[in-house]
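Reminder: ligand-aware prediction takes two inputs, not one.
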Amino acid sequence: MSSVQKIQDFQEVLKSRRSVRYYDSSVKISREEMTQMLEEASLAPSSVNLQPWRFVVIESPEAKAKLLPLAKFNTNQVETSSAVLAVFGDLNFPDYAEEIFSDAVKLGYMSQEVKDQRLASYLPLLNSLPVEKRRDSVLIDAGLISMQFMLVARAHGYDTNPIGGYNKEQIAEAFGLDPERHVPVMLISIGKADKAGHPSNRLSVARTTEWR
Ligand SMILES: Cc1cc2nc3c(=O)[nH]c(=O)nc-3n(C[C@H](O)[C@H](O)[C@H](O)COP(=O)(O)O)c2cc1C
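Here is what comes back for the chain with flavin mononucleotide:
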């Protein structure tokens, strides 16, 4: 049993999330709870609801040993976390439209007519997008779910660190994914903090926002 405490209050979830780089390595996260957190994170919005995010949960000692040389500047997180979530964007995301829209029809969220119209109008468009545009699209959607996952993890009482410093050329192949299809987005280490994350400041809204 872990001593991880869930957090109900959204302001507390938001304000207590910090990048944590050292974890209590005795804390394990069950597959059931990791699945629940991924399901909750998957409520994130995505372009045409096509959900192009794909994940590898790196939790076994063997998988972590494989990740370590690919994340040389972030070894503490890999070594001490309960798991590292590798987030990818799937460039073949239009292939899932039929399945997603059919499920929506079965659930009563969409009529058959709307499904047929959408498939007829969106699919040729999506399939004709140049790879750079698809790449842009999956990076946005997978970025949204990554943030949502970090907040969900915090609400479950865990700490995280988004990690961009890793070998993006080799990550997909190392974990058995097709690198032509799977765009690396980020790694997210997750566990229970052993050392608190350090406070960080933000630019004021006045510096980042124009009002018209
Ligand atoms: C896309 C992205 C990549 C990041 N890469 C790393 C990284 O490689 N190593 C690391 O220690 N932190 C990394 N960070 C964490 C940032 O340093 C951290 O979010 C920022 O300093 C603000 O601190 P906070 O997360 O505690 O609020 C990354 C954050 C993001 C969003």
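The longest strand covers residues 182-191. Residues 18-19, 21, 74, 161-165, 186, 197, 200 surround flavin mononucleotide (CB under 6 Å). We will return to this case in the review session.
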